[in-house]
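Run log, item B.
One chain of 112 residues. Sequence copied directly from the ordering sheet:
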Amino acid sequence: MKLKTKEVKNITVIELDGNVIGGPDASALNDHLHMLITENKKKIVIDLKAVSFINSSGLGMLIGGLTTMRNSGGDLKLAYASKKIENILEITKLHKVFDLYKNVNDAVTAFK
């Protein structure tokens, strides 16, 4: 999995690319989020457009990211989840935990 960060209207967007399966990727995302917190960037959108697969460890990684941001006084929203990922979030009831948006612009606007 690759991480790419950009700013959209003062909101940090992290684009994930590849399979989200936890492991070293979880550490990379966690380290990246903590770096953003030190820069006082606490409003995060995770762009899942280029994610083709997510497993339970990957879900745990996203939950950890959400917890990290909320504990720092921020928040994390998801955008562009495929139908497959949306189904996984519904089956696991995580659709009630995450704010899920059709696209990045909707997620960014939700922070206002």
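Observations after the first pass:
- The radius of gyration is 13 Å.
- The first strand starts at residue 2 and ends at 8.
Flagged for discussion on Thursday.
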